[in-house]
Amino acid sequence: MAAHAGVSVATVSRILSGTYPSAPATRTKVMRAVRELDYVANANARGLAGASSRSVAIIVNSVISPHYAHVAQGVQTQAAVEGKLCIVGTTGGDAERELATIQLMREEHAECVILVGNVVADDAYRERMADYARALALAGSQLVLCGRPPLGPDVPALVVEYDNTGGAYAITSHLLSAGHRRILFLGRRDGYSTPESRITGYRKALADHRVPHEPGLEVEGTMERSEGHRMIRERLAAGPRDFTAVFAGNDLIAAGARQALREHGLRIPDDVSLVGFDDLPPAADIDLTTVHVPHEELGRTAVRMALQRARDKSRTAEHVMLGTHIVIRDSVRSLIHATSPAHQ
User: Which residues, at least 6 apart from 97, have a Cβ–Cβ distance to it below 8 Å?
Assistant: First the structure.
């Protein structure tokens, strides 16, 4: 940076520390170099040249969500195995807060920054993530996208995700194999990576089983318990029940949907079959058939990938896809031998 500004190293150090007077013109040159080189100071190790990083960072929307909490636990577990500290930051889904948190992790010289969660994967998002990845790489760190779509071969970011589409295909096929043809999907969110992947699997299963796709059986909503309750309550209030099964976009939606169905006097699985996605609480508590996601393994894999890259700079960009599978409980009824007109 001193060479870029045309001044001595000592002058740069004095200006950045703010403890020594300097000529305005000299300060202007140094601060211009700071901006142009995107320089960040190490708040904890200033002056300790060559000090190695001891931390990994994970950034999530919220630590309240079971999904994020379990992924974070996986990061923490693997970080401990690797002798690293784990720093956790939350964003509340705010892009500006995400940027500020990543900047803080750069200043702390975290060896890797793991971003977790569902996103709107538009051009603005991809451009922002590419900037993050390059800035972290210049600072000697590594961006890992966990449960997020890849950015392309020219972006220095690692990706670890799980098979949303395959899991949705499998759980929909499970319902179709049980004789269900009118399957209500709860939680469509156009543009958002996770629900879009799940609804893609749902639609593909319908097509492969030669069941007509009906857009009216896809209900828009966020991935929260209250939304599951709302979507079913409004659906049943709008007219006679036109479905025999419900595919909830996640287990929280399923729990809310279950409550609304029961309030309407409908039994699960006798009257309506219900499945979810994630296999996190409250799935086991409500005996829900669902798709198991390897949440903790996502976190552990993200840490392993990043630290392996740190040890071997020649490694090319990596993309790991973890598998999902169905967990069968007691929330699906077979209609194969049913004769009641309500089940046709």
Answer: 91
